[in-house]
Amino acid sequence: MLDEPDDGTGVRPEVLRGDLRRILLESLPAGTIRWDHKVTGVRALGGGRHELTFAHGPTVTTDLLVGADGAWSRIRPLLSNAQPRYTGITFVENYLRDADERHPAAAKAVGDGALFAVAPGKGVLAHREAGGVLHSYIALATPQEWMSGAVTAERVAAEFDGWAPELTALITDGDTAPVLRPINALPIGHRWDRVPGVTLLGDAAHLMSPFAGEGANLAMFDGSELGRAIAAHPGDVEAALTAYEQALFPRSERFAVESAANLDLMFGADAPAGLLTLLTGGERN
């Protein structure tokens, strides 16, 4: 894991989300995506057809409905009563720009890749992005009530009193206001019975914590596999959806299990020993 090459031959290449989004959007014919269509309601019409209502008024009737609408999906209730639950960990997201010139100590600590400084119930996670940007996630095991008050950099930094200044700088010296990211997850092994004309992909299907590093990867793979299944069953959408979901469920469960286990490794009672074990391929005691 630590020796993964960065010359393009590795199995875990990385790309900025914004760049990837632009590449994918530019590959589509004009008009494929219709913006400003917030779904406010959906109902089954029978025979695998569904009616979507949008915030600005119009409705659309579908023969195939794919819920790719994230953690708080409006499509998921057609298939499942499951709701995301708080994992107990909240991220506070932050950016330091022109880091090598303006924040040299923090930039040196992060280096050219990523930094993980973790302890039981908390951590400073950061990685370098293009253009001298340090992107950090400050992790705290905290009740949801903690997030109800004003969350300032000073309030977050108080949780890391005594930590090295090059690490706390990733909290206090941000160029953006702190953004709360409570980490939620669907139940491990989330699945549903086949419902005609509708399915899910990505976080709508298998929201998990980010500690397997597979959320966006799975969403894209889901979309690819759904397309392959439809192409393999021309004229038979139900056969395509059945085949897609039969592969989706065990695939997503495997990574959800890994993600939950890694969350415990990162912030559990023996942190950072668990993380070191993960990174070095050893065995936990």
From TrEMBL:
Transmembrane segments: none annotated. It comes from the Bacteria. Keywords: FAD, Flavoprotein, Monooxygenase, Oxidoreductase. One of its GO terms (molecular function) is FAD binding. InterPro entries: FAD-bd, FAD/NAD-bd_sf. The keyword Flavoprotein applies. Residues 197-250 form the FAD-binding domain. It holds the Pfam family FAD_binding_3. This is 2-polyprenyl-6-methoxyphenol hydroxylase-like FAD-dependent oxidoreductase. It comes from Catenuloplanes niger. The lineage of its organism: Bacteria, Bacillati, Actinomycetota, Actinomycetes, Micromonosporales.
